[in-house]
Amino acid sequence: MAAISVRTGPRRRRSVEGRQRVRDGLTDTLIHLLLLVVAVIVIFPLLWVVGSSFGPSGGLANASPVPENATFDNYVHLFTQTNYGRWYLNSLYVAVINMVGSVGLSALCGWVFARIRFRGRKASMLGILILQMFPSFLTAIAVYMLFLNFGLLDSLTGLALVSIAAALPYNTWLMKGYTDNLPASLDEAAALDGAGRLTIFRKIVLPLMRPMLTFVAITSFTVPWMDFILPRLLLQSSGKQTVALGLFQMITDQYSNDFTTFAAGAVVLAVPITILYIALQRHLVTGAMAGAEKG
Amino acid sequence: MTTTETTELPAPAPDRATRGPGRAGPGLPASVPGIASGLVWGAGQLINRQAGKAAFFFAFFAALIGWEIATGNYYAGMQFTPRLNGGFFVRGLWGLSTLGTQPREMTLTGLTEGDNSIVLMANGLISLLTLALLAVVWIWSIRDAARYRADLNTGRRPETSRGYFSRLWEGAFAYIVLSPGLILIVFMSVLPVLFGILVAFTDYNRDNLPPKNLVHWVGFENFATIFAVPSWTATFTGILGWTLVWAVLATVTTYAAGLLLAVVLASRRVRFPRVWRSVFLLPWAVPAIVSALVFRSMFNGQFGPVSQWLVDMGITDERVYWFTDPSHPSLARAVALLVNLWLGFPFFMALVGGVLANIPDSYYEAARIDGAGPLQQFRHITVPIVQRTVAPLIVLSFVSNFNNFGVIYFLTEGGPDNVEYRFAGSTDLLVTWLFKLTLDNRLYNIGAVMSLVIFVIVGAISVVNLNRTKAIREL
């Protein structure tokens, strides 16, 4: 009995393993095939626009992902013949103000809501929660009507202030939620040592908040580059446009004859932001999770 | 230590305090100082012999009166009309209630300066908000005067003005730190929101533009227009229906694709999972406006490459006008959903990937020992755990798709045209329609009504979502 089993055992096992291996190989191939198809679908449009930006002709019809005579003409044209450089600086200006203002204000407010008990705290937090539900473009349209009648349109600083205010309720909730989870014992120890409240905030709480600060900083820095509704409503003259507005106009106004310049502009806008997102992806995903859990 | 000191310190003070009010008449009922403070702020505190507090409250009163007189046009023997003589508050309230009475007119000397209804409304709103804040101080002064007197009458030792203010100052820290953010929010969010709500009840549109014309209050007329005039109602219900379909399909497709890819990438069979993952994250990392505009060009009917290939390969006889062919609205909608899938799946893939990494292997081992196949493991272990963690984000994603301005506006601009709709195309969502109503057609009042409708829908979803999360309970 034992001899038989010894003789037949390995052979049968080998055949089972063989079938298993074939099936595994088949699944592996299918899985990788699926991944490959998705990757092609993901990469192709991006490759197409990058290729077009190096292409020689200005027309959309001749744009191709792999241009035959690659040139930098479109980039030269972009910065010499259009206002792109100006738009880029405008966006940078708004982005920096928005980042600094959002991080500073939301960190302060979030910390106060998390650590200090004061009258009206619950009411104001509820108010913030309700404001946060109000989609920001609805506010934007009302702001537009107000600015239009008071002659405040066309100001980049105004745009930055409105952006800060629009995101402040949400950012404050994020910061409050994060501070809630920080140990209060450190604060108390510092208070016993005689540290003032602002000192405690600066020296102890702020460094601990760094992951959330990073999240708010990245999102509030990148939003002005991509936002369309607010700048479209609040900015008018061509010298005060942001990159997103300029690109949109390029593609709607001079549709078929200047596509390659648009492509170059799109690449110049997308590359830094893409690198930033890929490099800091973990922060961004955790931050989004935290936002959802806090409502 | 410090706390005991502050409570001990004012101990000798009540002696003076009890002697002080004694002169004002010990039997005075608590309502007398209260009423006095109600008439002239701080008067009640003065009756209570609390000069410091009296000055504090009177300062607000004086500021209110002074500001009104300084900005107004008050002089002896005048004939008072709020329009010409009123100061910040009187004229503000007048403007808010009437929205102006004098339109701009052509006279012999040129154009007269008419009332600008919108400026009047905004100013009125600001003065109303200021008055509301001052009313809080007013009620505070009345309650303080009455309570202090009641404490005196029951023989308790009341707090001195100085003790009161030092306590107030301690408590004011939070308010001082919050005030910059608060001011920004009040002027850039709260005020516009209130203003937007008010505009829904006016006839502010392209036929009634200040300063040329006056705007009037019209009550619920705009709501009646949208819900009773057939062409408006048809547009509204049609767009609302598509918006809901869009939001559901957009969320489901991106979530399903993200889940599938995350599970596949988590499998040990995949070689170089990190490389694949980075590639798949690209649509999320590239700014959505760029991707959407690129797709718009690819699907351009006349020159775009997609149409060209279809013709070259012989699949279609002529070019397909994806977003501009009114006879095929579903085609434009389907393409918009596909583009949104391209844009949206990486986010869910990244999220689910993070959750999967935290599921202990022991769950799957236990399942395997019990004889569960891979599909059963997926259905009974992976999906429930992922769903529980990601559920709030699915709701958030539904809301953001409901308001997905970017994809639709950049890709199709609402097209193809729909002759049955008012100022809207077949792929228009409520948001893009609202945008067109306001900016392109200057129908501000109808736009404001739409804003309110969107707010109610989005708010209802958010409230349901919030109730399930910790946020409310932690308030």
Largest interface: A-B, 95 and 97 residues
Chain-averaged pLDDT of chain B: 85
Alpha-carbon distance between the two ends of chain A = 68 Å
Q: Give the CATH level 1 class of the largest domain in chain B.
A: Mainly Alpha
Low-pLDDT parts of chain B are 1-24
- Structural class computed from helices and strand pairing of chain B: mainly alpha
Distance between the termini of chain B: 31 Å
**Order of neighbouring strands in the sheet with most strands of chain B:** 1-2
Overall tally of domains of chain A: 2
Main location (chain B): membrane
GO biological process, one term (chain B): maltodextrin transmembrane transport
Keywords (chain B): Cell membrane, Membrane, Sugar transport, Transmembrane, Transmembrane helix, Transport
Subcellular location (chain B): Cell membrane
Task: Describe the 3D structure.
- The complex is a heterodimer of chains A (295) and B (475).
- Chain A is mostly helical and 295 residues long.
- Chain A folds into 2 domains: 52 residues; 212 residues, Orthogonal Bundle (MetI-like fold).
- Chain A contains 13 helices and no strands.
- Chain A starts with a helix and ends with a helix.
- The N terminus of chain A is likely disordered.
- With 475 residues, chain B is an all-alpha fold.
- Chain B folds into 2 domains: 198 residues, no CATH class; 244 residues, MetI-like (MetI-like fold), CATH 1.10.3720.
- Helices cover 70% and strands 1% of the residues of chain B.
- Chain B has a two-stranded antiparallel sheet with strand order 1-2.
- In chain B, helix 3 packs antiparallel against helix 8.
- Chain B starts with a helix and ends in a 7-residue tail after the last helix.
- The chains are: A mainly alpha (295), B mainly alpha (475).
- Chain A: Pfam families: BPD_transp_1.
- Chain A: InterPro entries: BP-dep_ABC_trans_perm (IPR050901), MetI-like (IPR000515), MetI-like_sf (IPR035906).
- Chain A: It is found in: Cell membrane.
- Chain A: GO terms for molecular function: ABC-type maltose transporter activity.
- Chain A: It is a multi-pass membrane protein.
- Chain B: Pfam families: BPD_transp_1.
